[in-house]
Amino acid sequence: MDFTFAGIKESLVRKVKEFSSWSIEILTIGVYSVLLDVISYGIERLAYYVDFLFVETTYNATLRASVVRLAKDKGYIPSRKSGAFGYLLVGTDETFSSSNYPYTGKLVEVLKWTRFQNTDGTSNIYSIEDSQILEGAIQRMVNPNLAEVNNLGNGIVGIVATAHGFEEGQQIYITGTKFYDGVYFLTSDTSVNRIAFVADYIEETFTGLEQIRGGYGIVKVREGIPQEYQYIAVGDIEERIGLYNDSIDENEIEVFRINESGDILETVNIVNDLYFANDLENYSCQIDNFEDYDGVWIIFGDGITAKRLNENDRFLIKYAITTGTIGDIKQNEVITESVNPFINVENAIEELFITNIEPIVGGADLQSLIEIKKQYSRLSSASYQLTNRNSWIAAIEKEAYIYKAYVYTQLDIGKGTISLSGTVRQNIHYVTAVTKAGLALTPSQEQEISLNNLIPYKSPTDIIQWTKLNKIRIKFVITAEIVNTISFTDMQERISNLLTEKFGVLNLDFSQNIYESNYIREIDLVNGVIRHETEAYYAEEDINVQDSLKTFLASKTSTNYPNEADQIYIVTDTPQIWIRRKIDGNWYEPVQMSETNGILMSGVNLFNVSGTMVYSANQLTYQCFDLLLDEVSYVAVTGTTINSNQTVILEDLTGLEVGMYASGLNIVAGTKISSINNDDSSIILTAPVDTSGEGTGEILFAWFPDPKLQFEVRNPTDNDEKGYLLYLIYQTKDGEGNRIGDLRLSAFNSLLDYSPELSEFNFIYS
User: Fold this and answer.
1) ∠ at Cα 100 (94, 102), nearest 5°?
2) Are 232 and 257 in contact (CB under 8 A)?
3) Looking at residue 615, what DSSP letter applies?
4) Right CATH number for 226-321 from 3.30.70, 2.60.120, 2.40.50, 2.40.30?
5) Residue 139: beta bridge partners?
6) What values do phi and psi take at 47, rounded to 5?
7) What distance in Å separates the CA atoms of residue 288 and residue 304, rounded to the nearest whole number?
8) 142-145 long-range CB contacts below 8 Å, 24 or more apart?
């Protein structure tokens, strides 16, 4: 039947004719026609409503309340906004650069809901658990000379750290490792030259770049502003308290019963479902969202399955208002102010300083309907137990700030996408993820997901191994003939927007390759482009600010590719080094520093850069030392391959304030300054290291020290007025010399990401 107005009326006329002797003409004029119109209209609206209700019970639902209801039926509760989270370090040294810096004050307790912020008060965070700053503690923020990691048994890992100075029970923050970054409490197995903590054991060889920080206090925090609300009960069955705000943080709500003076009498137990509380002695409550997510209900018991409120019972509710994604703090050392003073056990104020030791990120906004549908459909097919890849991915993506995740095991290694050395262990699950902001996860985020989403549901024998997101930028060089009715600026914007939409990090999957035909076709379709020639390049960005030596890995290992056509080799003439500088708070356009002719690298644009490709054991290696000499110029000094125990003298450094390097300069792992000659401004280095790289495949490296100089810093934060980023740019080919235009990834944890800053556009009018 046609349920349009016309179809319904036609059907009614036909039925009246069947059941009576009335003529059609009578039914189409006068009052009869009007009655039929009214009836037809009513049926049409009813049919529309029934159809609407049916749609709202399916995956095609359009109302938030309907989608939320469907998600709950599948066992998935959509999240509200949530604030970014991370850690603060508390100490007595304002610069946080001193080692063995003693705290001579009394015990300080940093209670949950303590507020902190940046200098102008635009970024607000608060502690989400109680922490202590111990009397007599010593601030330590130095490389503890990590040597090796040992399996101590019973889930305890020991790391050899000579004279580390930490004690049992202290919190530490480990960075720079491959497998053990994060925050830990030291166990009783800790000794003078060993730190011990609870973790899954995975064999790892350390490079000398690792750090342990701690000693005073490490405070776990979340973005937002704490709030309080007091309520006097009426005594109703299933009494509800409404909190009317659409920005109440998903994670942080506490409910207490209090007396008239505001003193806490008991903590109300928050349960998922009051029906299963089965406790009439202690108060329990259930938290539920408004249908439109504009607020939160706090629901108490009915007196049958959970305790009912008594009239005049008083309750205190603590919660936080968050700004979601816009509250992310993407740089270190931003949070430096404590809204609440530090009070010791003797009620005296202690002068302590704070800073965030990692970005505080991971804020999430209210989930869109598309996101809710994606999550509940995936979770409905995955059990609460982590039994396969989909269930692992679903558990990770349950966090609202996660955009996508991927999980693989050593069973996947034979597919030619990853190389791992050592014993093959099929119970290790390698996990990687990218946030909705296109960023890698911080160590605290990885730990949070492991503790809440993975460990409770995995097999006891499964080991979680987070792998860092390997985001590789894409540089396009486009030369196009265009129509003369479009300006060059407009055309560049059109093409750049298209490339962002198609090849941005959030629009690609993990390990997804981009082939020449993909981007050629997309640019062909841009309105106004007559013809074009486009090349694509890998652009490896130096993003690890802790590495004194940066290694750019550019290819897969040969052993995983039995067919020559599947191998990836560096196109010899293509590698370039580019620099993007920040001066007086402003970022400038990237500038090319070097080019390669055959196996030789030389400087361009007045930069002095030299280096040689070295083929050894199927490895392709670049070595180049860079030094920043003043505010204006960037100079890279000729480098050479450093063999075991070889002494290298870098000369002609007139004007360099060599004292800046007195604290140590790492060229490669294990390379240290052995002497500094102030007379001729030379630096003598010794390098008892293996420079052959990792693995057996063809690998491209570019090595740079970490010149934390007076004028510029690598990978500057928003607070740094001056700094720079380095890029290694190159193309690859297969074993038969073909597919130069393709971008192919070397590991499951890799993602490509179009870079408009590095791309070049050259237009001519037709």
Assistant:
1) 70
2) no
3) E
4) 2.40.30
5) 101
6) -60, -40
7) 20
8) 142/99, 142/211, 143/208, 143/209, 143/210, 143/211, 144/195, 144/210, 144/211, 144/212
Please say whether the beta carbons of 602 and 610 come within 8 A: yes
Q: How far is CA 147 from CA 125, 151, 720, in A?
A: 36, 14, 33
Mean pLDDT of the chain: 75
Q: Are 223 and 323 in contact (CB under 8 A)?
A: yes
Quote the tokens at residue 123: 């970024």
Tokens for 403?
A: 């955009």
Tell me the C-alpha distance between 701 and 714, whole Å.
18
Q: What is the pLDDT of residues 566-577, one digit of tens each?
A: 667 777 788 888
**What is the model's pLDDT at position 424?**
55
370 by DSSP, 3-state: which? helix
Residue 351 or 615, more confident = 351
pLDDT band at 474 (very low <50, low <70, confident <90, very high): very high
pLDDT above 80: residue 4: no
Contact 428, 410 (CB under 8 A): yes
Q: Which residue has the tokens 């890849």?
A: 389
Instruction: Let me know: does 377 contact 61? Beta carbons within 8 Å.
Output: no
Domain boundaries, the chain: 5-55, 85-222+328-356, 226-321, 382-466, 471-641+691-765
- The answer to whether 328 touches 436, Cβ cutoff 8 Å, is no
CA distance 98 to 45: 75
Residues 242-268 have pLDDT tens digits of 999 999 998 899 999 999 999 999 999
pLDDT tens-digit series, residues 419-440:
444 455 678 888 999 988 888 8
Quote the pLDDT of residue 651: 38
Confidence band for 117, pLDDT divided at 50, 70 and 90: very high
| pTM assigned to the model | 0.64
Residues 6+ apart with CB under 8 A from 376: 70, 71, 74, 75, 76
What order of strands is seen across the sheet that includes strand 85-91? 337-338, 115-117, 124-127, 217-223, 85-91, 353-356
Per-range mean pLDDT, top range of 39-43, 66-70, 588-592, 706-710:
588-592
